[in-house]
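Hi X.,

You mentioned you wanted examples for the new student's onboarding notes, showing what a folding record looks like when two proteins sit in one file. Here is a clean example. The first protein comes first, with its sequence line followed by its structure tokens.
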Amino acid sequence: MLTTLMISGCSMVYELIISAVSSYLVGNSTLQYSITIGLYMCALGIGSFLSKFIRKDLFNWFANVEIGIGIVGGLSSLTLFFANLHLESYAIVMYLEIIVIGTFAGLEIPLLTRIIEEDRKDLRVTISSIFSFDYIGGLIGSIAFPMLLLPHLGYFATAFLVGSLNLLAAVLIIFRYRKRLRHERLYRFVSVFLLLCMTGGMLFAENAGNMIEDGLYRDKVILRKQTEYQKIVMTRHKDDMRLYLDGNCQFSSMDEYRYHEALVHVPMAYAQNQERILLLGGGDGLAARELLKYPDTEITLVDLDSQMTTLCREHPHIAQLNEGALENERVTVINTDAYEYLEGCTQEYDVILVDLPDPNNESLSKLYTNIFYRLCKQHLAPGGVLNVQSTSPYYAVNAFWCISRTIESELGNVVPYHLQVPAFGDWGFNMAGNEELKQQHPLLEDTRFLTQENLPSLFTFGKDEQTAEVSVNQLTKPVLIQYYNEAVRNWE
């Protein structure tokens, strides 16, 4: 029963590891999780079917299965990262990995059931016991992965740890029932040796992960941190420092001022008042830096990841770049989900800036829906302005105009604009208000890119940045993810 509990939890974690790593490396998390679950269930059926051909030496076969799944599963993260870096056929490696692990896992329960049945001779008790512990183990694995394993160990050490548990299950069976195994000395040596190797892999996983991860980035990695919500990586090449969240570049220190000046100063010029500001996202403090150039602003910054805001407050390079904005007494940092904050907030704001990552997964897409913008509208003061970073109108044209149309469906008055940011290319925003938008104030002069003279050029779009009809992104029908993922595939 202990073995059943262990192997079931391990099987669940392998599914989650493969899905999470593939989402991190390739994107489109819905597709990755769906393929992993579907293919894994099919492979379980294959393994269960193959078990009927095993007629004797059940303990040997069970030991073989646990050793096999321990090796393949323990190396799963390493294999996927290696395939992404050095092979063109990442999907094939991923599918093979799922099939092999799933087939092994499909053999486990039938073999255990027959082993227990041989001793107890009571199929009713055997089946109920096996499946009870199997389902409980699955629950333990599904909870442990996101809450304990991934945040504290990362992908590599988690895979090695779970592989060690499978090998430990093999060791338990081999030593407990050694008299019922053929070649039990060989099995004892191999299982213990592999368990030690897998444990060693877990201890050195961070070094291996750092070496492999360095290959994912063009420049030298100077910081890496796995939080409960995302993987933070910072790179540096000469004077260019870049911050990545889950592999996606958030800013380059060489040109981030262009992005943040456009994000902040355009809506501030169009807002009737400039005192009460809500910044959703922007945990790096760079948008807050621009907002603090206005002497009367009071800024509420809402960012989900407390480790992100702490890092950008304390890390000397980022703190220098954001000029200590997150330490300023006029900035109130609240670490919670932006959607939940708007649902529970009663405050009205003169300007709401939505500086969130691109909508490349379901949780982020929720923050680009009509319902989310309806919540934003409810918290806009009279004459207030909402501004949303809206990805690229050139590289992701349908996604950009989908965001624009979704905002328009709730606020009515939308003004899209864009500019060139060398690190990103052509990048766009959608500004909206609860009244017709007109410039109320001259642009702030303390800028490096924006001027009153070049402001009109931001509102002009070329023919190749227009699109046909797009749908509104709804909470119950998140079409934006499809538009965004299509753009990613086209440009890959």
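Then the second protein repeats the pattern, sequence line and then tokens:
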Amino acid sequence: MLYQLYELNYNAAQPLHFFAQAMQRALKSPFLFGGQSEMVRFMGATAEMVERGTRRFSKPVFGLATTKVGGETIAVTEEIVLDKPFCALRHFSRATDRDDPRVLIVAPMSGHNATLLRGTVQALLPHHDCYITDWVDAKQVPLSGGPFGFDDYVDYVIEFLRFLGPNTHVIAVCQPAVPVMAAISLLAAANDPAQPPTMTLMGGPIDARAAPTAVTKLAETRPLSWFENTVIHSVPFTYPGAGRRVYPGFIQLTGFMQMNLDRHVDAHVNLFKHLIQGDGESADATRRFYDEYMAVLDLTSEFYLETVERVFQTYLLPRGLLRVNGELVEPKAIHKTALLTVEGELDDISAPGQTLAAHELCSGLKTSQKFNLFQKGVGHYGIFNGRRWREEIMPATRTWIRRHDKGHDAVPEGDILPPRTAKAA
């Protein structure tokens, strides 16, 4: 019933939403007397806050139309190269003959859209041929699309790697760390030619026991039945996926915001002040962030509950007990895929130590094939977005990829910056 009540409240607020929109347009009219007065700006700011508070934020676009390769601006074209019921494999095709290492970015399926990694892709594009997993909102998938669980996620990763072919590097951001390691372990055990030369795991819960957080504590203190009875709901009849059992995105968003409620409240208070002051640049920055942050998607109940149980309650991967489609996952079988882990000092989602645990599990790798990048002064989001990502983490990541790439020459001169805050695992 919660999902239905949420939809009812949203629909009930639409008259107020449309009124706020009309008020905004009227106050921006060039014919309005005193249109730049403080009173008019106050009324406009109030109308915008009401409009945003009653809006359903739609899925954003990547909007990466160009990039720079070797100092030259070139066009970028997005194309879906493989379309699955629950995921589209999206390619950022660059209009250049330069043959750079191919990278599959596995975006998290944790409530936000893959566009949350826009900054990740943007920074990698000048140096890599980039693909990304663009996960589909579960409420948009009809029941005829079948279920989608943890094993299906692993199968998708394996299928994408085989589709892209040998010498495809993998970057897993946050949640995908466990299924990506599982996929590569299975490929290694089968000596599959689709084994990637490198896997980069960024802020992921490889061993959630290593460093407790609010996320891990919640999973530890509640039985799986509590999650199933409390946060799993049926999709309303107004969506293509009507009747599908899901973990709604609005519940995940509420949880994320409660973890840093003061910061989010302050951000919206400052947005209101910027609007009154006419500080359009600051207001635009806040708008852009929350347009992305507030756009959420639903997860299938199978995937959500199986992830809670296997990753955050029974810790099957670090205990050597994880099975995918009945096959035991053994990271020690990995010998050809070099491992880079990235952790943020201030990460309160996957705290330092959780991702580092991957090095012990991948006991078949040589010391030269393993490296841990510990980034000081950044939280979870800062690992894959923002200045530290662009200036320090990304250069170290592309250096690692080039070093272990099988089909390309050494790094072009002046193209790579040395990692400055890295330390060995």
